[in-house]
């Protein structure tokens, strides 16, 4: 399996939303998009799939080192090898990749967040780092596009968290702010229930409204 094939299987399997998003992108940019998407997916799986925290931290530290190798064109992992050309071709910076690593570190450290202020740090690191990297790959006319990429990254990540709420809750991760849960009189146990109560439904409706608020920020035009 080539590095690109690995990235495709990791981040954009057939019939997935990522598959179609990449499929309709400019063909010359597709390998870079796949590499960036696969990088985030690979890192996110550390917190999701590795049960022993000490093992997860070792893997995360390995990726901190591997990211440096990718930027030195000495990548050992298929994803870091696939990233080497895009890093040069599109002038991708190291910081957004490092922010994704730190987002995973937050997943290992915290199971919930006191308010959206704290959660927004996580959404910036995990969500907007990805969309801003993809904006760099796709190209843009207006620098303000990166601001829209930021809003889009938050909206997409919050949507994914809402969609996977019970799966994340079962794994001990709660991405609805604690103060909002308390105000709605909803406990962590309530989010694990097979049937949704009216209180939970109202709380989730408020989360969806926040997603809409981020989704409808002014849009910018990408360069083709």
Automatic annotation (TrEMBL):
GO MF term set: transferase activity, transferring alkyl or aryl (other than methyl) groups
A Pfam family recorded for this sequence: SQS_PSY
Identification of the protein by name: Squalene/phytoene synthase
Organism of provenance: Alkalilimnicola ehrlichii
